[in-house]
Amino acid sequence: MNQTQLTDLLLTSFPAVSIQSAYGEATFYYNPHERLKRGTYFCTIKENDGPHDRASALSRPGVWRFNFGLPQNRYTELFGPRPARPSKGGVIEGTWIFTQEDCLMPHPVYGWMGWVCILNPTQATINIIWPDIERAHQKSLEAFEKRLAKET
């Protein structure tokens, strides 16, 4: 699976999701009918290292990372308690190898927020983690409704 195939799968599977690209990252937002200035994050695909996010070594040829946020209970079920927020430019503490491909793990920077990642996922792995991707989408729907209620 490559980024284009995953992008197509996400856009055809989840209605009202749009993409904004910046800094080598495609950010997928849930925002039906563009009711908010910006919708709620659903997931991202990152192709390049950033100034404060180099743990996955995305500068390696052909390496990219798929990221999404899980509800707290599911994150805890998979990885235990959320780690502490790292210092600027740091990574979360743990035993994960953030350069490992095709392995679901906490996001090296945003794991403290319940985000997870996978480098170069295969179709087989996407099939296995699809229920978690659906959970991430549902989480973005719930966050959207909360924000919409506050803004109206």
Structure description:
With 152 residues, the chain is an alpha+beta fold. The chain has three helices and six strands, in the order αββββαββα. It has helices at residues 3-13, 72-79, 123-151; strands at 17-22, 25-30, 40-46, 65-69, 105-106, 115-119. It has a six-stranded antiparallel beta sheet. Strand 1 (17-22) and strand 2 form a beta hairpin. The relative contact order is 0.17.
What would the keywords be for this entry?
3 helices, alpha+beta, 152 residues, single chain, 20% strand, 32% helix
Write the layout of secondary structure elements.
Blueprint lengths: L2 H11 L3 E6 L2 E6 L9 E7 L18 E5 L2 H8 L25 E2 L8 E5 L3 H29 L1
Short description:
With 152 residues, the chain is α+β, with helices and mostly antiparallel strands. 32% of the residues lie in helices and 20% in strands. A hairpin with a 2-residue loop joins strand 1 and strand 2 (25-30).
